[in-house]
Specification:
Layout lengths: L24 E12 L2 E9 L9 E2 L1 E4 L6 H13 L9 E9 L8 E9 L14 E8 L9 H11 L7 E5 L1
Parallel strand pairs: 1-6, 5-8
Antiparallel strand pairs: 1-2, 1-4, 2-3, 2-7, 5-6
Length: about 170
């Protein structure tokens, strides 16, 4: 008689993710970039009504929903926040940024995947007025102040023409 089927080899026991493990909160960031009269420009929005970094400028971004890939999240966020259609093939990976708080709660263990996009369909416009007070194009070399610090890190590397590391870690 064959043995009773056990857990699939590619899954973990349900309690495997409690205590002693970091559970990463994933987010997708979309740096919409275009040529401007004084150099490259990026689309920025002024956060408002979110409860996190309100009053700070930010790129198009959002959390990865359950069952969604980071690529799908980037495409969805570009549509939801800026009203543009991005082909997943046009998502150019910039970096994965691991932000964490040493000894902090699991919710402060984050991985932010940044993409750059230079092609899309539609005209970017503020689509979530309950989450942003303004949206506009800014020279990469002259961003508005203040910019969300971890986003500023990546944008400053782009502005300097520096190679953006494939993976960055930023402890708090």
């Amino acid at each position: 008689m064959p043995a009773a089927p056990g857990p699939a080899a590619d899954s973990y026991p349900e309690d495997d993710h409690v205590d002693g493990r970091s559970l990463l909160v994933a987010a997708a960031y979309v740096v919409l970039r275009r040529p401007g009269p004084t150099g490259d420009e990026v689309l920025m929005q002024l956060r408002a009504g979110t409860g996190y970094m309100d009053g700070w400028w930010a790129t198009v971004a959002g959390h990865v929903d359950p069952g969604e890939s980071v690529h799908e999240a980037a495409v969805r966020e570009a549509a939801e926040e800026a009203g543009v259609v991005v082909d997943p093939a046009d998502l150019e990976p910039l970096t994965a940024l691991h932000r964490f708080e040493r000894g902090g709660p699991q919710v402060e263990q984050r991985v932010d995947v940044f993409f750059q996009v230079t092609r899309w369909r539609g005209d970017p416009a503020l689509r979530e007025a309950d989450r942003a007070a303004a949206m506009g194009w800014y020279p990469l070399a002259a961003l508005p102040d203040p910019v969300v610090p971890h986003e500023r890190l990546v944008l400053d590397l782009l502005a300097a023409g520096a190679a953006v590391p494939a993976v960055l870690s930023v402890p708090r």
